[in-house]
Amino acid sequence: MTWKLEAITGEFTGKEVSVERDMLIGRHQDADLLLQSADVSRRHAAFLVKEDALYVQDLKSSNGTFVNDARIEHETLLKDGDIVQFASHKFSVLAPAVDVTAEPAAPMVVEQEAPVVASTTPAIEDSIQQPSEAIAASETAQAAPVDKTPAQQMNDQGMPDLKQRDASVQLSREGMPQNVGIPKPAPIPEGTDLSSVKPEPAPIPVEKPVSIVEQKVEEQKNATVGLMSLIALIIIAIIAWLIFK
C-alpha cells in the first residue's frame, strides 16, 4: 500500500509525493524529501511505514512538526485528510485507495463423513471357498523346512563331495590334504640373454649430519685443551727463568 502527500504550500504546491517506505524530511542532501527552506532543519522529521500504517516523527527540529496545527513531540499516527506541517511547508495526507475489484475469498466447505454402520449380515468372504490350488500353495509355504546334511549344504554351495575328489589325495585326521606336490617355477625361454639384466644398484652411503650440540662440545673441549697447554707453557717458562736467573 502506498500513502501519498499532496503539497499545499511551498515549492511543491499541487504535487503529490508517494510514501512507500521510511523517509527522511529536511534540508540535508541525503533527505528523501528535500525542502530548500531556511526554516527547515537539516534533519527535520521522518515518515515511518509500519504494517501499512503511516506515522510521522519530529527529529528535534528548530521550528517543529505539526499535525492538524498541533505540535508533536512523539511518533504520531496519521490518517486520511490530516495536515502535516514542517515549519512553513504543509502537506495533506492521502490514504491508499482500497481495491474494490478484488473478489472475496470463497467460504470453506467442510464435508461431513458418512457414519459407519455395522453390518448385521454375515461376512460374504467367509462363505467363499478358496480354490484347491491356493490351499495347496499355502500349505506348501507353511510346511516346515527340511534340515539338510553338511554334505548336501556343501553341494548347494558348489563344493564337491568327498567321493568326487581325487582318490590319490590322502587326507589327514584333520581333513588336510597330504603329499601334495609343489609346482615348479616356469622355465626360462631359450635365447634369453641373462647378461643384459642389470644388477640392482648398490646403496649409496649417506653421511650422518653432525649435530650442532656435538660440534659445540667439541669446540669447547679443544679450547680447554689449548688453554691448559698455554698455562703449562707459561709455568715451565717461569720455572726456567727462576732457575737460570
Automatic annotation (TrEMBL):
FHA domain ranges (all copies): 23-72
Transmembrane segments: 225-244
Top-rank taxon, per record: Bacteria
UniProt KW keywords: Membrane, Transmembrane, Transmembrane helix
Feature: compositional bias, Low complexity: 132-144
One Pfam family recorded for the sequence: FHA
Membrane is among the record's keywords: yes
Annotated region (Disordered), positions in chain: 132-160, 176-199
Record PANTHER family: NUCLEAR INHIBITOR OF PROTEIN PHOSPHATASE-1 (PTHR23308)
Protein known as: FHA domain-containing protein
